[in-house]
Task: inverse folding
């Protein structure tokens, strides 16, 4: 059978290939080879119509080529590759949202301690005490007391489970001083990320307090921090 144009020739080839997701790739490859042969014939002096006709006739029977390509592009293998590529794409998205973005937030997020002007600090205490609940590690890193009576608790947390990365821990627990007074009100923020750093500020905290207690007792999970304070206007 004499094929008069490339499009009908390519259509016949592709009709034999069952895995349709490979059609675009196959068509581009075949079209590229046909164009090369066509240009060779034109360079030898043939007209474009003559060159196309000769290129198609010498390229081979499209049905046989299609059958051969169908064996190479097996639907079962093709679907396996297609599904595996889809799963790989999903895995990449998961890593981006659960590793790359949280890691960037951890590395480039603002440091809570840097948000407090040095001239406003009456005293600061490095604590660096750790507690663990389930797979989460909470570390109270520093206590900063300001001249206006604000007590700042700087803490970090990390969830060691892969699927827990990026979620911050905000509820430290019940906060009291050495007199037993509870402090329920406060304000703060968290950087988020794999290693989340947070700041929680208690307003109107008494300067004369000698101890800060943080107690977490929820859902059969428990920890407690007992942090001595520099009471009575200690220097920074």
Result:
């Amino acid at each position: 059978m004499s094929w008069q144009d490339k499009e009908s020739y390519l259509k016949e080839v592709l009709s034999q290939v069952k895995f349709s997701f490979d059609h675009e790739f196959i068509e581009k490859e075949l079209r590229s080879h046909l164009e090369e042969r066509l240009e060779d014939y034109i360079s030898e002096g043939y007209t474009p119509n003559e060159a196309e006709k000769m290129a198609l006739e010498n390229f081979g029977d499209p049905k046989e080529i299609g059958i051969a390509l169908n064996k190479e592009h097996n639907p079962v293998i093709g679907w396996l590759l297609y599904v595996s590529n889809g799963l790989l794409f999903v895995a990449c998205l998961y890593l981006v949202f659960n590793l790359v973005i949280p890691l960037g937030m951890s590395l480039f997020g603002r440091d809570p301690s840097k948000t407090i002007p040095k001239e406003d600090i009456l005293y600061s205490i490095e604590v660096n005490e750790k507690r663990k609940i389930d797979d989460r590690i909470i570390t109270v890193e520093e206590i900063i007391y300001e001249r206006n009576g604000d007590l700042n608790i700087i803490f970090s947390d990390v969830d060691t489970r892969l699927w827990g990365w990026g979620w911050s821990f905000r509820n430290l627990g019940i906060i009291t001083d050495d007199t037993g007074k509870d402090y329920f009100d406060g304000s703060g923020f968290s950087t988020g990320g794999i290693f989340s750093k947070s700041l929680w500020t208690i307003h109107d905290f008494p300067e004369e307090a000698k101890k800060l207690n943080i107690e977490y007792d929820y859902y059969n999970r428990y920890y407690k921090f007992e942090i001595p304070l520099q009471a009575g206007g200690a220097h920074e």
In short: The CA atoms of residues 161 and 203 lie 34 Å apart. The beta strands are 121-133, 136-146, 151-159, 174-177, 187-190, 196-202, 211-218, 221-228.
